Amino acid sequence: MSKEQNKSRRKQRLWRGLTALTAALLAMALTGTTIVDGFRTDIDKFLGTASTRVVTDSTDLSDIYTFASDYTSTKDLVQAIADVGERMSEEGSVLLKNNGVLPLTAEEKGKISLLGFSSYNPLRGGIMGSSLTSFSGTDADPVNFVQALTAKGFSYNTALETMYSGLQSVFQTEVQSWGGTITHTTITAPANSDGSVFTSKEPSLAQLDAADANWKNTLNDYPVMIVTIARAGSENANYTPGQAGVDPAQNLNQTDPLGLSDDERNLIQAAIDQKAENNGKVIVLLNNSSAMEIQELKDNEGIDAMLQIGLPGAYGFLGICDILDGTANPSGHLTDLYAVKNSLSPAAQNYGFLSWTNADPSLSINSAIVEAEGIYTGYKYYETRYADTVLGQGNADSAVGSVSGAWNYDNEVTYTFGYGLSYTTFEQKLESLEVDLAAKTATATVTVTNTGSVAGKDVVQLYASVPYTDYDKEHLVEKSAIQLLDFGKTAVLEPGASETVTVKADLTYLASWDSTADNAAGTKGNYILDAGTYYFTVGNGAHEAVNNVLAKQGAAVEGNAENVQTWDLEAMDTTTFAKTKNGTNVENQLADIDINYWLPGTATYLSRQDWEGTFPKTYSGLTADDRMLNIMANDNYQITSTGSDVVFGAENGLTLASLKGVSDLNDPRWSQLMDQILLEDCMIRTGFGGTSTKAIESIMSPEAIQNDGPNGIYSYPLGQYANTDKSSGDPCAIDANDPNAAYRCGVMSNETVIAQTFNKDLVEEYGKVMGNYSLWSNLPIWWGVGVNLHRLPYNARNHEYYSEDAVLSTIMGAATVRGAKAYGLIAAPKHIAFNDSEVNRTGVATFMTEQKAREGELRAAQASFEDEGALGAMTSFNRAGIYTDNAHPTLLKKIIRDEWGFKGLMSEDFIMNARYVTLKEAVINGVTMSCNTGESTMAAVSGKYAYWTVENVQNDPVLTAALKQVMTWQAYALANSNAMDGYSSSTRLVKVRTWYDWALLGCEIGFAVLTLLNLCMYFRARKKH
Amino acid sequence: MERKKSLGLYLASVTVILALVGIIAYLINTNTNYYAKLGVDSVMLLCGILGVLLTVVYILIGLKGTPMVADILPVAASVLFMVCTMFLLNVRINSLAAVFTFENSAANMADTTSCIVAIAGCALAAIFSIIMSFFDVSKAK
Fold first, then answer.
1. What ipTM describes this predicted complex?
2. Would residue A650 count as lying in a domain?
3. In terms of domains, do A305 and A393 share one?
4. What's the whole-model pTM score?
C-alpha cells in the first residue's frame, strides 16, 4: 500500500472512530432521555428542579391557601421544633435509679467527667431510618451531648474528650459496601442476616491507659462521672438473641447483644472505684431504644443514678442537661418491660430466620414465624404470669422460661412497663371510675398530690384487669392480668399541690377478640366483655397496678387495694363492640393467619390455663403444602374479561381543587370528577407510585412529595420544595437565601422517647410542628407514625415504634395524626401490619391468632384511622400468614378500610420485586400505589408488570372498579390536605423543560450533528482513497 | 494482498470478551433469587448479542481487507453496546437502590455481584468498541 493510501486509510479510521464515538454518545443521550423520563421525580428531588409549573388565574388567596401556619418566619418555625425536641427529652427520659445524687448542684455542674465513647459519639437517631439529619448554619442546628453541656452552663473534663478522640480507631465501625467504606463513630446494630452478631466497641481499660495513663486521676478534678452505654437502633438490622448474637471473636463475658460486655462493666467499675479517691458520683446514661439487660446495673450500689435517654435527636441533650441539673424534673416512664434475660420470653422462642423446609427464594418464600406467645408479649406476659403465681394457678411457677428454678417475678424482671422515677414523690388516689357502656367509655378521676420537696409532673396510668372466665378457657380467649387502658399527665405541681386528672378511656380497648363468638353479621368472631368483676387502678407501672388489683382480690401482696375501683358486668356482652364506630359489623377476618388453619395441629398457643404445658416451642422446619406454596407464589387473582361499565375519561370540567376540603365522599362531585380520570392514569399511578404521588392531569391532581420518618420530615431540606416566590401570596413563601432552607427535619427523639413522655398534648404538639413544617417546606405526606409493636427487644428497628403496648401506641399515634392533620399534613401510620422483624422481611410468613392480631398490632394503629381519620397509611413488606401483606384478602380491605373507615391513600413499602408487589391483588385490597417508579407510560408500567395492560384490565369489572376506587381515595386524601395549597379550580399544570432536559436535548442535537459530520468526513476520505 | 494483524484485532477481541462477560453475567443475574423476578430484558440482550456478532464479523472481514461494510460494523457495534448498557441500567436501577438500602442483606448483595459485573462488562465493551473503531483489524504488508 502506498504512503498516500496509508494516509487516506488513517483518515478513514479516524473519522470512523469519531463516528462511532459520537453515534454511541447520541445513543446514550437518546436512551438517557427515556431513563430520565422514568425517574424524573427522583431526579428533580435530587437536583432541586421542577418539571411542572402550577399556573393559577385566581387572585383570591383565601381560596388558594387553605391552611395557615402558626409561625411568621422559618426562624420561628425551626426554633419551635427545637423547643419541642428539648421538651420531648425532658419528659421522655426515664429516671430508673437515683440514690439522691440527682439533680446535680450548681457546683457539681462544673465537674463533669464523661466516660464511654458514646458520651462523645452518642446515638441521636437510628443508624438507618429515623436517622439524625445533618445540617448547619440554620437558626436551630443540632446539638450533641458536649455542646448541650456547654450551652447549659456545665463544664466537663476535656482531658477525657481528648483521650477518646484519639481512640476513634478502636470504637469506630467500618461497613464495607459497594462504592466504598462507610465509617460509623457511634455504636451500630448488627447487619440484617441470619446469625448476625453484636461487637462491643467500648475501649478496654488497657486501651484507655495506653491512650492516657493519667485518665483516672483527671476524674478527681471532675468527680461527677457520667458513663454512657449505647445500643443502636436501625432499620434492616437485627440482634440475634442470646450468646449466638455476640461476636464469638470477643471474649468479654457477654451473654446477649443487649447485655453488657466486660469492657462496659469494667469502665463503670473503674468509675465506681474512683469514688474512693474523689468522693464523686457515678451516673449511667442508657442510650438505647431496645430494652437492655441491666439487672446488674440496678443491683450495683456503686451506681448512684441511671437515666434512660433513648435516642434523643438533635435537641434532646439540652433537655437531658435540664434533668441532670434539676431545671426539669424527670417524668418519663418506660414503654417496654426490661427483662433480666430477654431470650427467655415466650416471644423469643420464635424469632429470627426460621426457614421453610421447602423454601423458594425465587418467590420470596423464605421463612415463617409462629407468634405462639399469643397476646403475652412484654409486660402482659410477665405481669400475668406473676399474678397467676400469686394466685397459684396455671402452673405459673414452673421452671419453664425462668432464669433458674421455679419461675419467680423478682428473678425475671428488672424494670416493668410504665416504671419511672422523679426527683419528688407523688400520691395518686383513684377517686372514682364511671363506666358508660353505651358511650363505650370509662372515666377515671384521679387526685395527684406532690408529696415531695420539688416541683414536677406526674403520669396517671390507668390500668384494667378483666375477668378470665371458664368461658374464656373453653373458647381459648386469653386475658392479660393487667392492661393499660389510658393515661394522663399533670401540669407541673409545686410541692404540696394537687391536681385532679380526668382520664376518659375508650372501652373498645378493654374488649377481647373471641373467634368463636357469634356476631351481628351472623357469622363467627366478635369482641366480647366477659361477665364478672372488672378492676381499674392506677400505678407507677404495670407491676404496681397488678399488685393493687391482687390486693383488692385478697392476695397477700404489697398492693394498695384502696386505689382500685370495680365494675361488675352481670352477663357476657357480645353486642356493644359488635359494630365498629362507623357501624360495620365485625367478624373473623384473619383466620388464615393462624398456622393451624393451613397445617392443623401445628402450633400450641400460650395460655394462662397452663403456662408450662403451652409455653411456646420453636417452630422451625415447617413445610408448606402445595396449596400454601401456590398462594405464596403471589399470583392469586386471575384477570377476567367479562366486561366493565366503569366510566373513565369523561369530560365533566372539574378539577381536584374544586373539591378542596370536601370531606364527604358521597358528594356527587366526587364521582363526577373521578369519571374524568383515564384508566391509563389509574394503572400507571398505582403501578408506579414511587416516592412521590405524581400529578394526574385528567383530574388536575398535583404532585405530592412523600417523606420519612418517625423522627420528623427528613427526606428533603426545608428549601428544596419551598416556595421562594414571595410575590405569589403564599404566606409560607421563603426568601431564596433563607439560612433555614438547609434545615432538614429528622431532628426529633426516637419514638420510644416520644411515647415515654406519656404526654398526649406534647405528642400532639409534635404533630403540629410537623404540620407547620410541611406548610413551609411543601412536603405534604409524612410516613411518620410507626405503630408496629416491640414484640421483642431484638428487633433493631424498635426505635421507629413506640412501645410493646398497643394502647399506648395507638394513643400516641393518634395524637400525632391529630396534630399534623390540623395543618393539612397527611401523617401516615406504618407498617400495616405485623412487620415484627427485619429478618427476611420480604417474604417472611407471620402467623398468629386473630385475637393477637386485633388486640396487638391492629389495635396499635386503630385510633389513628378510626378516631382521627388519618389520610395515609403504609403497608408492610412481610406476609400476613401466607399472603403478602398487600394481597391478603381481608386485612386491608375488610379491617382497615371497612371496619375503621379509612378513606385515604395507601402506599406499599419499598418493595421493588414486581411479583412480590402483587399489584392487581393490592389494588383490589385498597392499596393506592406501589413504591416502584418508572416512566409514566403504559409501555413502561406493563414492562414492569406484564399483566398490567389496558387490553387485559379494561374488561375486568373487579379491577376497573378497584382502580377507580383507590384513585378516588388517593384524590380524596390530597383534596383534604395541604397538598392543594396554591391550587384553585382555575389551576393548570404546565410542563416545563428543566436545565437537564435542555442539556439532554443539546447533547442529542450536538451528537447527531457531529455524527453526520463525521460520516461526511469519512465518506470524503473514502472517496479519496 | 498479504495482510498482518493490527491493534484493532486485539481491541475487538477484548471487546467481544467483555461483552460476553457482561451478557453471561446478566443471564446469571436473571437467575439469582433476588433478580429472577425481573425477567430477561430482550432488547438489552438482543443489542448485546448483535453487538458481539457484528464485532466478530468485523474481525473476520477485517482480516481480509477493509471494505466499506467493515467500517460500518464497529460503529454499529459501539451503538449497540451503548444501548445495551443503558437498557441494563434502566432495568436494574430500582433494584440496586433497594439492595443498597432497604433490602440490604448478604444474600441480596451476593446476587448483586453479577449485576454489577454485567453493567461493568457492557459499559467497558462499549468503550473498547469505540476505541476499536479507530483501528483496523489488519493492514496490508
1. 0.95
2. no
3. no
4. 0.91
How high is the pLDDT of residue A53? 79
Query: pLDDT of A956-973, one tens digit each?
Result: 999 999 999 999 999 999
Q: How many Å apart are CA A197 and CA A240, to the nearest integer?
A: 7
All residues of chain A having their beta carbon less than 8 Å from the beta carbon of residue B19 are none
User: B37–A236: do the CB atoms touch at under 8 Å?
Assistant: no
* The last residue of a domain, from among A544, A579, A614: A614
Any A CB within 8 A of B42 CB: no
Q: By CB neighbour count within 10 A (0-12 exposed, 13-18 middle, 19+ buried), where does A601 fall?
A: exposed
Contact (CB, 8 A) for A705 and A779: yes
Is the domain of A24 the same as that of A146? no
CB of A777 within 8 A of CB of A721? yes
Query: pLDDT higher for A984 or A442?
Result: A442
Question: What angle do the packed helices B68-100 and A995-1024 form, to 10 degrees?
Answer: 160
DSSP 8-state symbol, A467: -
Residues A922/A877, Cβ–Cβ less than 8 Å: no
Choosing among A1, A8, A19, A907, which should be mutated to test the B contact, i.e. which has the most B CBs within 10 A? A19
Q: Taking a C-beta distance cutoff of 8 angstroms, is the pair A121, A146 a contact?
A: no
Task: Write a three-state SS string for A799-842.
Answer: HHCCCCCHHHHHHHHHHHHHHHHCCCCEEEEECECCCCCCCCCC
User: How many angstroms separate the CA atoms of A265 and A247, rounded?
Assistant: 17
Buried b (16+ CB within 10 A) or exposed e, A987-1008: bebeeeebebbeebeebbeebb
Inform me whether the pLDDT recorded for A339 exceeds 90.
Answer: yes
A vs B, Cβ pairs < 8 A, gives 121
Model confidence over A56-73: pLDDT tens digits?
776 677 678 899 999 999
Average pLDDT over residues B105-127: 90
Residues A923, A1000: one domain? no
Long-range contacts of A131-136 (CB under 8 A, 24+ apart): A131/A711, A131/A714, A131/A746, A132/A313, A132/A314, A132/A711, A132/A746, A132/A747, A133/A314, A133/A712, A133/A714, A133/A744, A133/A745, A133/A746, A133/A747, A134/A744, A135/A717, A135/A742, A135/A743, A135/A744, A136/A742
Strands (E), A144-246: 173-177, 180-184, 224-231
Same domain, A361 and A500: yes
User: What is the mean pLDDT of the segment spanning A844-850?
Assistant: 98
User: Nearest residue on chain A to B106, judged by CA atoms?
Assistant: A193
Check whether residue A166 and residue A222 sit in a common domain.
yes
Give the side-chain half-sphere CA count within 13 A for A791. Answer: 29
Of A25, A193, A946, which has the smallest distance from its Cβ to B106's Cβ? A193
Crossing angle, helix A760-777 and helix A806-821, to 10 degrees? 40
Chain B, 57-116: which have a CB under 8 Å from a chain A CB? 66, 68, 71, 74-75, 78-79, 81-83, 86-87, 89-90, 93-95, 97-98, 100-107, 109, 112, 116
pLDDT at A59: 67
Taking the CA of residue A992 and the nearest CA in chain B, the distance in Å comes to 24
**What grid cell was written down for A81?**
421544633
Total domain count, chain A: 4
Sign of the Cα pseudo-torsion (B73, B77, B78, B79, in order): positive
pLDDT at A974 over 70: yes
Residue that is last in its domain, among A572, A598, A614? A614
**Contact at CB, B130 and A842, closer than 8 angstroms:** no
Instruction: Report chain A's mean pLDDT, rounded to a whole number.
Output: 95
Q: What range does the domain containing A116 cover?
A: 94-331
Q: Are A860 and A788 a contacting pair, CB within 8 Å? A: yes
The enclosing domain of A735 has a CATH number of 3.20.20.300
> Taking CB atoms and an 8 Å limit, are B37 and A38 in contact across chains?
no
Higher pLDDT, A675 or B31: A675
Q: Chain A contact for B40, CB < 8 A?
A: no
